[in-house]
Amino acid sequence: MDLDDTLLLCILATTMNFEKLLDQRYSKETIHSIASFLVEHPENLNSYLQLIETGEPGISQRAAWALGHAGEMDKALLIPYLPTLIRLLEKPRHDSVARNIYRVMQYVNIPEDFEGIIYDLCIRDLLDPKQPIAVKCFGMTTAFNICKKHEELQPELKLVIEENLENASAGYKSRARKILPKLKSAEL
Fold it and tell me: Using N-to-C axis directions, what is the helix angle for 170-185 and 133-149, rounded to 10°?
């Protein structure tokens, strides 16, 4: 971490003004610094998630990006916040919010209490023709990971993926090619 990152984290630690920071210093370095700060200081996640939920659209997008990076750095970091993340997925303010939440969820061992609602949200987004490809791909992987524990869901996921395959983008087809054989080999 260089001096600028260290100063940035000190400013964050003393002011907790993520909104101002995301508005004034929009860069990969800022996003990475915020993500590192959240991993090191998870007690700030409630206020940070509030920013994603209620902040200005551009700020909310950038905040979601940093949250996605924080979740990748620490796979268990966001598990206590699953109810809030689910609420954000149910009515995302922007595509980037859903994309970054699913990005994290594809790496998380989702507790059983939340698997049903998260799986349903993944299927909803896979079936929605308006959803961006990244949301669908990360949602597909998240749903697949849930299906590993609940084989009875695999035929449904397989059907949903195949229904959208013909007119899908290259990214969707690539993800589907990785997941479908695993579903087929696990068919009941």
Answer: 10
Half-sphere exposure of 16 (CA within 13 A, CB side): 11
Please give the single-letter amino acid code of residue 53.
Answer: E
Rounded to 5°, the CA angle 97-181-164 comes to: 50
> What band does 21 get if pLDDT is binned at 50, 70 and 90?
confident
| Token reading at 157 | 């996921």
pLDDT of res. 29 = 84
72 and 128 in one domain? no
Domain membership of residue 135 as a residue range: 110-188
- Show the CA angle centred on residue 24, arms to residues 22 and 29, nearest 5°: 60
Tokens read off for 64: 């979601």
| Number of domains forming the structure of the chain | 2
